[in-house]
Amino acid sequence: MAQLYNLSEIVGKEYVKKVCRFPFVEEKSTTNLMNLINKPLRGSPKMENGKWKMESEVKDKIKISSYGVLKYVGNVIPENFKRESVLRIIDANLNRCREGLRVVEDGLRFVLNDSFLYKKTREIRHGVDKILRNSYGELIKERDSFDDSGRQMPEISKKVLAGIITANFKRTQESLRVLEEYSKTLFPKAAADFKKWRYAAYNAEKSVYLKYRKFFCKRNVKERTALL
Question: 227 lies in a domain?
């Protein structure tokens, strides 16, 4: 049975009450954490610019093992979201959503020449764009594309149009779900609008698939053949 330790046992209960709750799990051997608990701290919690900071042996990293796997946990996790962080999440997902819809749009418009479905997709993109247009300045102010940890993530290659359209519908739907959830913290009235357009995106994807079913089935056959 794994034994549970609270951060309060390591850095002090008062500090934890103000900053975080975070459980650490150690294997049957409790040597690592017991050493940390019994080791005297170099400092006590301090308030700087409205934030609590701890000068101690466990300030930056706490080494723990779980079933033989070593892990590092950086600093403590705050109970409340920072407004700036939520704005970054919303900004990133608005961009992802609009970009995904534009990719689908252009495939429908220039490759499939389907004006009806193209306009239907464009309507979703315009609808999403209007939701937080008045907060554009606030959102872009917190954008930090250069230091984004996901910037260097590799992209999966797609060789057929059906794969591009499917992937970008999924990208759109996922980003709308993220927008719906995180907007509840800062822009609660916007959550229902994001939900509305998320379901519109589901419906648009179904319409495209049903109309071009042979096209998508052909793509699936190619993918299965490539795996053989």
Answer: no
Confidence bin at 154 (pLDDT 50/70/90): confident
**pTM for this predicted structure:** 0.62
Measured from the Cβ of residue 93, the count of other Cβ atoms closer than 10 Å reads 24
Percentages helix, strand, coil for the chain (3-state, rounded to 5) are: 60, 10, 25
Which residues form the domain of 180? 83-222
Domain boundary among 74, 105, 127: 74
Q: Tell me phi and psi for residue 2, to 5 degrees.
A: -75, 140
Q: How far apart are CA 198 and CA 124, in angstroms?
A: 9
Domain assignment present for 114: yes
Separation of alpha carbons 190 and 175, rounded Å: 14
Q: Report residue 145: phi and psi, to 5°.
A: -65, -35
